[in-house]
Specification:
The chain is an alpha+beta fold. The chain is built from four helices and three strands. It has a three-stranded antiparallel sheet. The chain is globular, with a radius of gyration of 13 Å. It starts with a strand and ends in a 12-residue tail after the last helix. The relative contact order is 0.16.
Length: 86
């Protein structure tokens, strides 16, 4: 699994500032950061790519919020997202 830092997140998503990324998190439209060190955070690349793919596919904000919820649930070992058959 690849973890990317803020500059790469902004480049991948088109966000222009740190504040816009954190605003998207507060709005439920982007996944929360993961701590990778005492003063370092990043985001799993596959989560950023999944959100980008949803945007490109024209999904609504409500659909993206559901996706973000599922992505967060998948971070917890042993927890299966709602509707998962695995």
């Amino acid at each position: 699994m690849t973890i990317i830092r803020m500059p790469a997140v902004k480049a991948e998503t088109g966000h222009r500032s740190h504040a816009s990324v954190y605003s998207a998190i507060q709005a439920g439209l982007f996944t929360k950061q993961v701590h990778i060190g005492p003063r370092s955070v990043g985001w799993p690349l596959h989560e950023v790519q999944a959100i980008n793919a949803a945007r490109i596919a024209g999904q609504s904000d409500a659909e993206i919020r559901r996706l973000v919820t599922v992505l967060h649930e998948r971070r917890t070992p042993g927890v299966r997202p709602e509707g998962s058959n695995q």
